Amino acid sequence: MTPLPQLGHPLSHRRVPLRIRFRLLFILFLLSELILPLTFMSPEVDRSPLLVGEKLIGLNCFTFVGGSQYQPASKKKALPFIPHLEGKKAHSLPEKETRDRPKIALIIDDVGFVRQPTEDFWALDIPLTFAVLPWGKYSELHAKQALQRNQQIILHLPLEPLDSSINPGAGAIFESFSPQEALQQLRKNLAAVPGVIGVNNHMGSKGTQDLKMMTLIMTELKMRGLFFIDSMTIKSSLAWKVAQKMQVPVGIRNVFLDGLGIEGIPLQVRVLIEKALNQGSAIGIAHTRPGVAKAISDCLPLFQQAQIELVHVSQLVK
To answer: Which superfamily, per CATH, for 95-315?
Structure first.
């Protein structure tokens, strides 16, 4: 190794060439331009929640849509904190501002086969849409009672599931049906429930992927002036796409409110509210199970505090 030049040694008097010094200064200038700004910047973290099976699991850059479909999170900034039940009640908005409030529609599925869990909803003084199964013991009775309370009725249409061992119930339409058989069954189901203004699917993870079946159903709904709500029991559903193509008014379920059980309803309501705040509207589905009506009733202050307007689902179809 060559020793460093010492004082008095001839090498110590050599000067660094001018061009090299300029190059060194230029390099130092570039480094300062790159490094200094970074010391004053704090990176932004995308804190959009990820829902898996409708559960909030952490920070990420994706949002969960339609039950099991992922899509990039919106670039829109997160909205303010959603208050807890024990928080203060929100002040009422002037009438001229209510039209711009985010809207949520609540659908109650599986109406017609149980009595008390359905009739518990009569005490809720909010807009509700009841999805009534055809041929149930209480289907006609509960549809009429809901109509008397100025609620909306849609047909909860049983469609074929992927698992052939699961029975979707009376009035189900299967892939094996001829077009004439499927149409005949659809018309019977519609006639069995009074006051129907729309349809959503009961099960149907196989049926909603069947292009021919969906086209047949949407053709009939268009002729009758009815809308369709895709319950999104499977992410590859074609129902809403076919409805849009055929210009049938359609909506998509955003959250199953009781998908985590009764105790999970407050969390799911908050998820639904967050979606409505970000999207402008959202659709939630619950079922006629014991305790669901009370759990939703207990969550009503959450909608009020978030300035959410509850509406019938017919107002959200496009």
So the answer is: Glycoside hydrolase/deacetylase (3.20.20.370)
Q: Are 248 and 268 in contact (CB under 8 A)?
A: no
pLDDT of 228 > 50? The answer is yes
Contact 199, 228 (CB under 8 A): yes
CB 156 within 8 A of CB 133: yes
Domain ranges across the chain: 95-315
User: What was the pLDDT predicted at 259?
Assistant: 95
Q: Nearest-CA neighbor of 50 among 74, 66, 83, 73?
A: 73
Q: Which residues contact 284 (CB under 8 A, 6 or more apart)?
A: 104, 105, 106, 107, 253, 254, 255, 256, 257, 268, 269, 272
pLDDT tens digits along 171-209: 999 999 999 999 999 999 999 999 999 999 999 999 999
- Spatial contact of 56 and 270, defined as CB atoms under 8 Å apart: no
Please classify residue 128 by burial: count the beta carbons closer than 10 Å to its beta carbon, then call 0-12 exposed, 13-18 middle and 19+ buried: buried
CA–CA dist 318, 303 (Å, integer): 23
- The helix (run of H) or strand (run of E) holding residue 196 is strand 196-203
* Tokens 């299967």 belong to residue: 174
Question: Smallest Cα–Cα separation from 216: which of 70, 303, 208?
Answer: 208
| Tens of pLDDT, residues 88-137 | 343 344 444 456 899 999 999 999 999 999 999 999 999 999 999 999 99
